[in-house]
Design a protein that fits this description.
Length: about 150
């Protein structure tokens, strides 16, 4: 049995674990998971640059860029106002820096993006609990009560 074959069950287990976490996560937690995923991919890419593993580095940086694009696409620029616009520009900058890090094999650019992501993630993590849950729709009146109310008005 080769080493790559031995890793497949572990990889499959991790994928199932991640899928379960995603399915049960709140919207706030999903964003946290995206930050964590991007940070993990950047750290792994840094290690691959240091080890000279160009192909794996490129794949990991591409994955981190895709995650940041996901964070960027989740912004609501109309509702979020200036904060959302600033985050949009910051995410765009991070993607460009990651692309440059990939082209130049520049660990310092990965470190810069890591610091920026950590700063945004720390702010996200500090959002008070009462603002983390989506707005719950108001319960609609019972249709039976409407019928009763209409009958009383006759």
């Amino acid at each position: 049995m080769s080493y790559s074959n031995a890793r497949n069950p572990i990889k499959q287990y991790n994928q199932v674990g991640t899928q379960s976490k995603v399915e049960s996560a709140s919207p706030h937690r999903l964003i946290q998971m995206l930050f964590e995923g991007a940070l993990e991919k950047i750290a792994l890419a840094k290690g691959n640059i240091q080890q000279g593993n160009t192909a794996e580095k490129a794949a990991l940086i591409s994955w981190a860029i895709a995650i940041i694009q996901g964070l960027q696409s989740s912004l609501d620029l109309k509702v979020g106002g200036e904060i959302a616009e600033n985050l949009d520009a910051l995410y765009e900058y991070m993607q460009k820096q990651l692309l440059n890090a990939n082209i130049k094999n520049d660990v310092s650019l990965l470190d810069e993006v890591t610091k920026l992501l950590l700063t945004v993630k720390e702010g996200w993590d500090q959002i008070p609990e009462e603002f983390r849950s989506p707005v719950q729709p108001k319960p609609q009146e019972n249709s039976q009560a409407k019928v009763l109310g209409q009958e009383e008005n006759k």
